[in-house]
């Protein structure tokens, strides 16, 4: 049955948008609040994130995204067009898909133009894909480009944050593989201290890598099923494959930390809970209500924007009515939303 996008609409009071990283006020990243929702129940639990350990058992598997965030916004110069703003959306096999902010009448004229980033780095505009998007390439290695952007680039931020925060605030503590152009926000809640407590409890910890594209997730179509999500690259280690199979065969639960992890896990094919499809691939899987989850039992995620594909994914986890009731309750209880906000734990 088709679902109207308006069913995922809510109004957020501006004061409930998180303005700054939680560690600036509580001294610890896992000092956020936690709201718990369920697929087969209207029950909602209000809690704090440090109590997440009470909801996961020995033998369960927690999977995080270890992709490290790169600041994707930078400026480059040419004698003909002056200084131009670039915003890398994602990397593909063909190059870097980037937004370029320039006058409409110049968008087709910059094809083939080289822009100077530094004395050593230049960016070439090779092709216009659509709208403000262009396929670009650089005259340097990926490593040199990413290192430059880590230091000099601007991070993607919510319009509600009070300033441009350092990229360090957007990284999670397990991030070690450069590749994301927007932060996997849910992983921010998990400090190394908390992960050690979980290990001591007998919880298994595993990782995937999904390089987040810097894209707008708003659903503009009237029916959510009509929406198309952007393609993103992922990698899954063999150790994670083994742990997934062992966990499921033992009757334990798989907890996915973030929409990036759950999209990666649900993009794969399984035989007796072992992944049989490529472990390095691109996914454009769009998870919305009606999706039958293959291996994931619970999702840890942040609050998402009204009428977005990420909210549609949360709705797929516990149902449209339940997720919208949970968001209504969260607003009444003054939870904080977006990348520096509080966490959801959703049991499917």
UniProtKB/TrEMBL annotation:
Domain of life: Bacteria
A GO molecular function held by the record: S-adenosylmethionine:tRNA ribosyltransferase-isomerase activity
Protein name (Swiss-Prot/TrEMBL): S-adenosylmethionine:tRNA ribosyltransferase-isomerase
Entry keyword annotation includes Cytoplasm: yes
Entry keyword set: Cytoplasm, Plasmid, Queuosine biosynthesis, S-adenosyl-L-methionine, Transferase
Species assigned in the record: Streptococcus salivarius
UniProt-listed GO biological process terms: tRNA queuosine(34) biosynthetic process
UniProt-listed Pfam families: Queuosine_synth (PF02547)
Keyword Plastid: no
SUPFAM superfamilies: QueA-like (SSF111337)
Transmembrane segments: none
């Amino acid at each position: 049955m088709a679902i109207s996008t308006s069913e995922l609409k809510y109004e957020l009071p501006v004061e409930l948008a998180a303005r700054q990283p939680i560690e600036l006020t509580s001294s610890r990243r896992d000092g956020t609040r936690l709201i718990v929702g369920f697929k087969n129940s209207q029950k909602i639990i209000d809690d704090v994130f440090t109590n997440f350990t009470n909801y996961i058992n020995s033998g369960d598997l927690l999977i995080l995204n270890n992709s490290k965030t790169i600041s994707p916004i930078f400026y480059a110069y040419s004698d003909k067009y002056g200084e131009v703003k670039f915003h890398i959306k994602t990397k593909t096999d063909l190059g870097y898909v980037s937004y370029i902010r320039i006058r409409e009448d110049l968008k087709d004229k910059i094809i083939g133009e080289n822009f100077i980033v530094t004395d050593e780095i230049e960016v070439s505009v090779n092709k216009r894909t659509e709208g403000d998007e262009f396929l670009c390439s650089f005259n340097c290695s990926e490593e040199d480009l990413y290192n430059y952007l880590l230091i000099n680039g601007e991070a993607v931020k919510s319009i509600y944050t009070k300033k441009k925060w350092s990229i360090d605030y957007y990284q999670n503590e397990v991030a070690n593989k450069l590749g994301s152009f927007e932060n996997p926000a849910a992983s921010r809640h998990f400090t190394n201290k908390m992960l050690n407590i979980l290990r001591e409890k007998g919880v298994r910890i595993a990782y995937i890598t999904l390089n987040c594209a810097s894209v707008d997730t708003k659903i503009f179509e009237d029916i959510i099923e009509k929406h198309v999500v952007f393609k993103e690259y992922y990698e899954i280690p063999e150790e994670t494959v083994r742990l997934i199979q062992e966990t499921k065969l033992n009757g334990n639960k798989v907890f996915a930390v973030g929409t990036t992890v759950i999209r990666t896990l649900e993009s794969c094919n399984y035989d007796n809970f072992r992944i049989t499809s490529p472990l390095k691939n691109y996914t454009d899987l769009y998870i919305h209500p009606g999706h039958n989850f293959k291996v994931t039992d619970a999702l840890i995620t942040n609050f998402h924007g009204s009428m977005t594909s990420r909210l549609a994914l949360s709705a797929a986890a516990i149902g449209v009515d339940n997720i919208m009731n949970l968001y209504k309750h969260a607003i009444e209880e003054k939870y904080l939303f977006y990348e520096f906000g509080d966490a959801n734990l959703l049991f499917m």
